[in-house]
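Forum: Protein Structure Q&A
Topic: Joint prediction for protein chains with partners

I've read a bunch of threads here and the consensus seems to be that you should model interacting components together rather than docking separate models afterwards. I'd like to see that in practice. Below is the full input, 646 residues plus whatever partners are listed. Could one of the regulars post the assembled result?
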Amino acid sequence: MSGSIMQLDNVTTIFGAGSGATVANDRVSLEIAESPPRLLSIVGESGSGKTTAARTLLGLQPPTSGRALWRGKDIYRLSRREMVQFRHEVQAVFQDPYGIYNPFYKINRVFDMTIRKFGLAASRKEREERIREALEVVSLRPHDVLGRYPHQLSGGERQRVMLARAYLLKPKVIVADEAISMLDVAVRAVIMNILIDFKDELGISTVFITHDLSAAYYLGGDIMVMRRGQVVETGDVDTVLKAPSHPYTQLLLESIPSPDPDDRWEIGAGELGTLERQAGVAAQ
Amino acid sequence: MMPATTAETQRAHRQGDAPLLEIENLAIHFRSPKGVARVVDGTTLTIHRNEIVGVAGESGSGKTTLVEALLQIVRFPNRETRGRVMFTTRAGQKVDLMQLGPRQMRRLRLDEIAYVPQGSMNSLNPVVRVGTQIVDGMVDHGVGEREARRRVPGILERVGLEPRVAKLYPHELSGGMKQRVIIAIAISMNPALIIADEPTTALDVNVQRRILETLSRLRDELGVAILMVSHDLPVHAQLVDRVAVMYAGQIVETGDVRSVVKTPLHPYAKGLMQAIPSITKPRERLEGIRGTTPSPFAWPDGCRFHNRCPYAMEVCANVPPFIAGVRAGQRETVDGVMDVQPGREVACHLYPESTPDAEATS
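Posted by a regular:
Agreed with the consensus. Here's the joint model:
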């Protein structure tokens, strides 16, 4: 038994007020322990509240009620010193690998700033060594990225640079919000492999926000299915996907396009919208 | 699962049909201060009536530029186009789309070839009721306003929307409904061909499924042909009859979707298939495809995939393979000895059909 690194405890987040209010998170709870490290996928359709949960974990979205905790402390009441520590231990990887870089600076700056801010290297030589090692971990060759500008890299390379940056900090937790959805199929697996290796070899946990159930399955670990702000099902990914207990999970599962052309959906099988009605979502 | 008999009948039916659109050796290049970007380079593809053809490939492979060029949507000042795109019109005439003037092209668009651009569901006019937006297109193509209005409920019903939706504004619709409205506009003039670029990409999976089902039903009900661009292979597996895999501005493999998915011939196609996680298969580590997509300003010499290809041979770095029909039967493929179905085409030196004759190259 070890302490908890991150925890959402009955988090409710409401945007707006009165009749137009949106309950983005409705009593959401989750926990990432110090050890063992864990891969947790949060899945759901757009508007299900998965990104709000991620932002709450990252200290970007204070909940309306309930608590978001880092090492038992309220993330939104950390002292300046604790905040630095929190930013060291909890890293974010976002959906858009194009939008997060400053286009005027070379890629090197991403690493240089990180090393300087967190005092990760004592000498120039050590700094270079650190960067080289971090790039190696994500299978990038230093001369492919260093000295280049963000627009010269592909989406997959940019996302790997973010993971290399995260690696420099040896965080406890990575929160990856739709980190692969803008990438080509051929590199999605590469990114997920890195996260799996981070967990197995470095003990880094990942909270993986995705709309893609097959990605959640590939990653393994645990899954949390959200709908309209609520957690409808949670558990080990194999158990949940093999025997979903909630009709909404069932709907998501049946909607995954199979890569096998012999396994096509039956067109007009049953009444249009039956699955949706059982799951409580609108047929569109 | 679709009953095999229906699929077989449809296929037999289609084979008897004349080609609707024949893309022959199409090249689209862009001049820029950095040099010439050969975005699409020597592409050949045929679409038959009532057939659904998919174009697959990663970002930067040229799939969107290809379909935009078919309709002369890209009118870049520096654009250079070569090759022919023969389209058989309703009147039975064959016209080269590349040679049409803007007015002739405009008459053909929507009326005979409808285009659903990527993300177009977000380009509906926010201050005009949906019904009016459907009417506008028809009126533009010579249908009387009263007649156009009369047709709207029927068109909406075809795409799975209630007639009352005509009175709504786009912001009152969900993403899936907006995409249905776009498809409604596309079928309003009963075209022979719909070109759809990533029609389900930003949608939730359950909505994606319904949209794909709708497209499939429209093909059966209206006899329309569909050319669909998508980066997502499972989407192709669910919808299309034939698929063309694009890499670096060229089509590297075509064939019946079942055969291409089950026995890919091109190493790139094989890599794509192997990169897809599937919840129906046991979990095993996927490797993806090493390296990155090359730049259209400097495609690699020889086969454009050779520096990422685990099967590369000496010839691959020097001689570009050309796309050629592959002899059917039991033969060596990237997956070992497989039964190769007829009608497959590939551009890869692993298959002797793709390698130019020694005399021709020397």
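Chain B touches chain A through 49 residues (CB under 8 Å).
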